[in-house]
Amino acid sequence: MISEDDVKKVAALSRIHLTEEEIPQFTKNLESILTYIEKLNELDVADVEPTSHVVPLENVHREDVVKPLLSQKEALSIAVEKQDGGFKVPKVIE
Amino acid sequence: MTTTAQKYETVIGLEVHVQLNTASKLFCSSANSYGAEPNTNVSPVNMGLPGALPVVNEEALNYAIKIGLALNCDINRFVKFDRKNYFYPDCPKAYQISQFDYPICKEGHIDIDKEDGAVKTIRIHRAHLEEDAGKTIHLDDCSIVDYNRTGTPLLEIVSEPDMNSSEEAYDYLQKLKLIVSYLDVSDCDMEKGSLRCDANVSIRPAGSTELGTKTEIKNMNSFKAVKAGIDYEVKRQIELVESGETIVQETRLWDEQKQMTASMRSKEEAHDYRYFPEPDLVPFTLEEKIINDIAATLPELPEKKLKRFIEEYSLKPYDANILVQDRATAQFFEDCAGKLNDAKKIVNWLNGAVLKEMNERKASIVDLNISPDNLVELITKVEDGTVSNIVGKDILTKMIDTQKSAITIIEEDGLAQVSDDSALEKIVDQLIAENEAVANQIREGKDSAIGFMVGQAMKKTQGKANPKKIGELVRRRLLDGP
Amino acid sequence: MNINELTAHEILRKIKAKETTAEEVHKACVARIEAVDKDVNAFVRLSDDAPDIKSHKGLPVPIGIKDNMCMRGVETTCASHILEGFKSPYDATVITKLKDSGAVLLGNCNMDEFAFGSSSESSYFGPVKNPWNLDCVPGGSSGGSTASVAANEAIWAIGSDTGGSIRQPASFCGVVGLKPTYGRVSRYGLIAFASSLDQIGPITKDVEDNALLLNILAGHDPMDSTSVNLPVPDYTKALERDVKGLTIGVPKEYFIDGMDPEVEAAVKETIEVLKKQGATFKEISLPHTEYAVATYYIVATAEASSNLARFDGVQYGLRVHPKETRKSKLIDMYEETRAVGFGDEAKRRIMLGTYALSSGYYDAYYLKGLKVRSLIKNDFDQAFKECDAIIGPTSPTTAFKAGEKTADPLSMYLSDIFTISANLAGIPGISLPCGFSKAGLPIGLQVMAKAFDEEMIFRIAYNYEQSQEWHKKRASL
Q1: Residue B37 shares a structural domain with residue B88
Q2: Can you give the pTM of this predicted structure?
């Protein structure tokens, strides 16, 4: 079952900082859900095809045509911080 | 005695990203163009805004199939897209839409020529479609993200680890670029990033069949850098092993300034991309007919063309090889050859003066804006002696600059060589009168003095006189008697 | 009856007969919101300006929009702190369709954060209350949308349904809520929870309104690759047909231990009514029903973990830097923004989904989930070979007390036990009122049909509804 170390790893992979107090709490939550999910082990699905889409669709594509969609002003209107026409973020490489 | 380097065999696999030059992005209608103002070729989709959804660009699929066919790949009939999850500011959805287990192309190959004349086959493992990331500019105190490039269609072509030297890697990459450049689906420009190459490099004891620990080298932005990066990495790995250390599997960045690779050290945990089927896109079943239709649009590829040029036009392999390096030039050659039955002369012009103009102007043959008719006319004028070879080259330059035909330039600038006997005779008579002493020397049999007279005649006519004719006339006047 | 208590079709008739105007209707809704929304908390924000309603041609009906659909220039937050300040630069396709229909957009309806929940209590903007009893939850996650209709603040509303998020709160609030077939309504501009399950649908006071609103929402959208290119029928035409000769399946798995006896009795009573109207009933089996919740929590959280990864403080919304340096400036920003910006349930689901997809667990969880999904879908394929529609309770209970299930996420998940399967199978389902408990809380009936057969659902729902008075009851607030 899921350990506190697993939860720390998953939190890091999810880019969510957990406090020391939160780790046991989330471990307990996730453990109870995962235990419930174990229910699926009752089923033999070795020969079952997975379903990732329920719509009977394939080959959906569009023509290669350019349409102006957002101006720079509109694009940057949502920015937390902007500079020189771009989105400003903390230094990526330190 | 074996040297240290000979004790090891190098194993190289390349991952080449080719940007496809569709009009719009892979998953949305914003323009796929290079060099625009930051964040102008953007849409809710390529910026990964909440709620925005991707729709596949049909042309990108077609381009990918075209490249796959040209690289001798099998085209998968069932194709789907997957999400590759990772956080990075230039990846606005925090996942890249790529292809995991059902890539569009698999199992192809490229043949490269070895120095000893042998041919080596480099296998291609797979080629898959994915979206390009944005561009991050790193400043002193922050980074700035531009999403213009985000969503540009990329075909990632992954080779098998079949190359054993940096030269082979270089040749593979050159050949790959050449083939793709024939398809009109990519600019294939390493400097602009429309062709990018990462190398997986490992070494192993010569004769061993097991693969050693590999490192991945990134950030090699030119053909030269690919070669230098691999050479550096091989040397580094051999030194490590020789000194009893182990090679760490990691990504290393090529530093063009320092000419070395350096570990892309990060405090990060190992990547776990958590690929899963992209629920926002449906799968594709590629019909035989679509693939056949695309196959029918494939041009004659460089290898075949080279062979044909050598056979059909009796070209030297060296010359023919230069011609096929550029599909448009090769076509230009054939158009000229259809008008002038002297392939060798045409090749001399194309691989000589014309290529020089292209290089100096950093222009393609199309950019020069001269037609095969124009060039053939110029070659004809040189061949019939209207103008000299040297003047002919000047005329070529002027043709490109002014977009005028060779004949127009010759007429307007009065460049035709003067071959008319009566006009030249007058000049020769004049020279003999003016240079009595020299004339006597010639009469006495000093043949070398004729050259002086020819030179003077050229001077008088500002180069338009036909020197051969002058020589003849001088000889006739002074030696044959009146 | 006040004008805001009427249905849309009644209002449109009155406008046509010049007995009222669109402005009057809008005013009545705004006045009602001002009067009761401090208690109900159905709206997280209202449209800024008084709209120029005279210019609205078509169906100028005031509508509530769940806070997870992008409206150009309007803050859209999924009731989450992390999207604070995000004003979408584009309209969702359904918003474009509504604007084109002449709709009057009242504002953004409250919801469980990112649609994660069944009680509308996990909103950053505080819990929504059930208009029938303010101590009870309205259900979720579209609890703001259903409560706004039940409280007569909006004439109708739209919500999104990933595992029951329209039907379960419709049931708790005594209104009509439809989850259309997956692919029937465009998802473009719907802030995704689980892309393969999400579907936008109408929430209304009666079945006729529901058909009318689906007429506006449904249709192929080239911007959504999963949108199906099928003609859209006039759904109101389906209301004209009776139920004679229809075979309706009743899944034995939908009457379980621990089910509220009042709910069971109400649903069984409904069956009797429909029988009298000429429908034939048949017990059927959906044998994998008991695995639906577990399957759902794998598939939905896996997709959610990826869909919500973009909320990282880079482009828009919240950005928080921790005081101390932990990893690197950038990673610290990511981790702190997401720690502060997401509520606990969002964190749980993101981590669960990440875990289910991570290396070493993919086959055991995610892949297995997709396989069981096939079994569940197959259950329905088999069932629809022997019946035209399936009915049962929408939820095992009526609205529960606020706070009752927040401490135990699993018990909350189980309140969607009857609704989740329709999302996994992609089929349409409606919830409509079929009675009230002794405590005065609405009971919901669910009707499901084959993919793209919303007409069958409307036909059965309308025939039942019109023979009863439930849809005429209004919550007294």
Answers
A1: yes
A2: 0.91
